[in-house]
Structures are given as C-alpha cells and as structure tokens.
Write a structure and sequence with these properties.
2 helices; globular; 275 residues; single chain; Immunoglobulin-like; eight-stranded mixed barrel; mainly beta; three-stranded antiparallel sheet
C-alpha cells in the first residue's frame, strides 16, 4: 500500500508541476484598416449574349472576426468600353452585389472598371480575351497501386501566332472546393492544348463541372501565383509567399491596398461523368 501511495502522490506532484508550467499566451495579431475587396469577373459564355453580369464588393475583416466579409452597399459601379466610351451601370442590389443586364462584350476590347465608394475612386483596366471550343475530354489513370487516381484532360485548339493564356475551373461532386489550373501557350502555340484535373477521391459516376476561360497575360501571372501559394506544402523547398496585388487601385491614393481583380474573358463549359 505504501508503494502504491507513493506512486499516486508522485503522479499528482507531476501534474501540479506541469500545470504550473502552463501559461496562456495571447497572440496579438495586428489588424489593419478594412480593405476594399473587388470580385469583378466578367464572363461571356459562348452561345449567350453576355448581357447579365455581376460584380461583388465587400470589405475585409479582422483575422479572428467571425464574419468572413462585410458587403459594400451604396457604391457607384460602372464599366466603360474604352474604344467608344459606352458605359454600363451596375445597380446596387443592397447585398454587396452590383448587377447589369445590358453589358456588351466584345473580344479584344479594353474595358475600365470605375468604383466610387466613401469619397474614393477605384480604377482597373483589362481586355476581354477569347477562348476556343472544347474538342474533347479524356480520362486516364495515373500512378500505381494505392497511389492510383483518376485524371481527366480537357482538349482545345490554341490559335496560332498569338500569345494565349487560359484558366481552368473544376468543380467535382466529391469535393466542395473549386480547383483552378492556369496555362500558357508559350511552348504549344498553334497546337491542340489541354488542361488537366485529378483528384484521389474521384470515382465512377462522380461528375466534374468544367469551365475554360480565356485570360490576359497579367491575370495569368496573378492567378498562377495565387494557385501556387494556395497549394499544399510540397516540402522544404516551396516558394516563399509574396504579396499578391491585383489590378484595382485607388486613383486618389495609389498606396492603398485593394484586394481582388477585374478581368474579362470568354468561357466554355462542360460537365463530365467519371467512367
């Protein structure tokens, strides 16, 4: 009994020692002022008029804030077609969305986004890029044994003698997260190109919603860095994260950090069922 008693006493002494060494550390995360977040993707789906478009505005919140975003209400939002000055007014929907139903998309034309908010003027300029039709979708198996996973490739023709850039979006029924893939035709100009998607959770009867966009070189550089920085850790030699800046800026204060991007692009879509 004395030996058992000694063991119990030792356990309680050890617990007390560990508790006395435990201290609460309050991490002070610096919170800057709220930043304007611009989600302005003008997507012209082939076969449609492209007249209905939505631009979403919000403000960033503190790191530990339970609200992921604060919608911006009361802003003035217009897009200007630069060659002829035609203006498209995006009406405030009182939830952070700004809607137009009369947009006129034109390939290779330059457009300027203008946002008036809190006495400030925010500007971004981009060109509407084209994309070709999808030629076909191919399914293969990659890896061996337990490492096998289903991969799909989406094929399309790349126009010759022009620099082209593409964004692929993949939304599968087995994973709620959107997968992005950026592609340049630097080494495949004028040939049939493909964008690929794989996921170890894919299985027969799963569906994948596919969108292929034509994008500008500037947006390609932006989204390529974003994809790389949001990917999984690939070991000790991954690229050091860098400050990612979009193309929107405060005309009165260029040093103000504005989050997000204004882009325009033609898009083709398809849905594929895994075999």
């Amino acid at each position: 009994m004395k030996k058992i008693h000694k063991y119990i006493t030792l356990v309680f002494i050890l617990i007390g020692f560990l508790n006395s060494c435990t201290d609460t550390v309050d991490v002070d995360v610096p919170n800057g002022s709220a930043r304007l977040v611009v989600e302005a993707s003008i997507n012209w789906e082939k076969g449609t008029s492209g007249q209905t478009q939505i631009i979403k505005l919000s403000e960033s919140t503190a790191f530990f804030d339970n609200n992921p975003e604060v919608p911006v209400i009361g802003a003035s939002v217009i897009v200007i077609k630069n060659d002829d000055g035609m203006q498209f007014v995006f009406e405030d929907q009182n939830n952070g969305d700004y809607l137009t139903t009369d947009f006129v998309p034109e390939i290779d034309e330059s457009y300027t986004l203008e946002i008036l908010y809190n006495g400030e003027t925010y500007i971004a300029t981009e060109t509407l890029m084209s994309v070709t039709e999808i030629n076909g979708i191919e399914q293969t198996i990659e890896g061996d044994g337990d490492e096998e996973e289903i991969q799909i490739k989406v094929f399309f023709d790349d126009p010759a003698n022009t620099e082209n850039y593409y964004l692929g979006e993949f939304n599968s029924s087995v994973n709620p997260l959107l997968t992005l893939s950026a592609l340049s035709d630097q080494f495949t100009d004028g040939n049939e190109n493909f964008i690929e998607f794989d996921n170890e959770e894919l299985s027969p009867e799963a569906t994948v919603d596919i969108s292929i966009y034509g994008i500008s070189e500037a947006y390609y550089n932006y989204i390529d860095i974003l994809i790389e920085q949001s990917g999984e850790n690939d070991g000790p030699f991954q690229t050091t994260p860098v400050q990612l800046s979009g193309n929107c800026f405060n005309q009165n204060n260029p040093d103000e950090e504005v989050l997000g991007y204004f882009r325009l692009g033609e898009v083709v879509r398809a849905t594929y069922t895994i075999q």
